[in-house]
Amino acid sequence: MKGSIERVRAVLHGQMPDRAPLYDLLRNDAVVSHFAGETLTVENAAQVVFRAFEPAVDATRPLVRLPEHERTEVLPDGRKRRFFRWTIWDEHVAYADSAAYAAAKRAQLDAYDPSWTAERQASLERSLESITNHRRRLGEVFFFPGGPGVGVQGVYGEIGFDHFCYYMADYPDLIDELIEMSTVQTVNWLEHLPPNHGIEAVMIGDDVAFKTAPMLSPKWFREHYFGRLARVTAAYHRQGIKVLFHSDGNLNLVLGGLVEAGIDGLNPIEVLAGMDVGDIHRCHPHLFMCGGIDVSQLLPLGTPEQVSEAVHRAIDAAEGRIMIGSSTELNNEVPLANYLALREAVLNHPY
Predict the structure, then answer these.
(1) Which residues of 80-115 are buried (b: 16+ CB within 10 A; e: fewer)?
(2) At what angle do helices 45-56 and 118-138 cross, to 10 degrees?
(3) Per-residue pLDDT for 351 more than 90?
């Protein structure tokens, strides 16, 4: 849409845009087909999906995923990878017990060398090339590339959260070392960005909360997470990059610590988990938000009128500090009429 990139930049820098930007991931056949002007298929997805973004939203983030034929593949290590229409799920890595996990991870830590290598440089250059390619294909849409972060989700995501809790109970120092290694890798990566990296803002993510509360205690976050997040955000800021932090769930008990660690923005503002746009803005007025419209009940099951009302409330409550979108991603359960109502409400609510 006309002016999208400048509109988003205004929000990033604490200025008042002409209207709230629209921010979302499009993983919805009807919405993509509508805005691309062509029925989406797996075969034409590489062109149609990207074409839909520019008329539909002002900003988006990774992954700009393409639909897949549903199937199951076997990975080299024997785990199954399941492809659904818009998502991919890998089986967790299984270890015989916590001692086996500890032995494998200790070997990984002992072998880790933080030195910058030609292989790491080539990987960084591929990442920058991918970002440039996404920007080119998205046109007048502000793109938040995914950036490395503290990496807690990477540690528990490999094995599943249940096993993560068992292993952390048995080997807390080992888990801490793994998170520290991930943090060091992130800072190292950022320190080697070229001066012309061209990245204005990134989304970094650790899903660290359930719908009721953080996954781990506030004490754990104070002792193991916030300090590392502060190192990561400082490294981004040294490169002139704004940090949008992503976590689903109810972050209220740890949000103050996340803000003190230096995040600039928060996504996705999961409403039915207890996150409230107005409360967040009153407590942290400099923070920009992305999301804020419930996609678990309201967008799939509500009426267009109810969607429109929620949009107007969120825009008013944030006072220019929000990019409106779904509270996770625009999935296939959302009727086209409800997304059109969301978009129309934003376009008709100038500041």
Answers:
(1) eeeeeebeeeeebeebeebeebbeebeeeeeeeeee
(2) 60
(3) no
- pLDDT in the model for residue 68: 96
3-class DSSP state of 339? helix
- Convert the pLDDT of each residue in 250-285 to its tens digit: 999 999 999 999 999 999 999 999 999 999 999 999
Residues 6+ apart with CB under 8 A from 193: 124, 128, 199, 239
Closest to 340 in 3D by CA, of 16, 35, 23, 70: 35
| Residue 309 token pair | 């009302």
Q: Could you say which DSSP state residue 224 is in?
A: I
Percentage above 90 pLDDT, the chain = 99
Tell me if residue 212 falls in helix, strand or coil: coil
Angle between helices 172-191 and 118-138 (to 10 degrees): 70
Query: Which residues lie below 8 Å from residue 283, measured CB to CB, with a gap of 6+?
Result: 255, 256
Which residues, 6 or more positions from 52, have their beta carbon under 8 angstroms from its beta carbon? Answer: 26, 31, 32, 33, 34, 35, 36
DSSP code of residue 3: T
Give the architecture (CATH level 2) of 4-65+94-347: Alpha-Beta Barrel (3.20)
Q: Answer whether 153's CB lies under 8 Å from 206's CB.
A: yes
The pTM (predicted TM-score) of the whole model is 0.96
CA proximity to 330, closest of 322, 347, 319, 342: 342
Terminal Cα distance for the chain, rounded: 18
Tell me the sheet residues that pair with 60. 143
Query: Could you tell me the pLDDT band of residue 211, with boundaries at 50, 70 and 90?
Result: very high
Q: Is 350 a residue whose pLDDT tops 90?
A: no
Kindly report, residue by residue over 63-79, the tens digit of the pLDDT: 899 999 999 999 999 99
- Alpha-carbon span 86 to 92, nearest angstrom: 20
> What is the reported pLDDT for 42?
97
Query: In angstroms, rounded to a whole number, what is the distance separating the alpha carbons of residues 240 and 229?
Result: 17
Indicate the burial class of 219 (C-beta count within 10 angstroms; 0-12, 13-18, 19 or more).
exposed
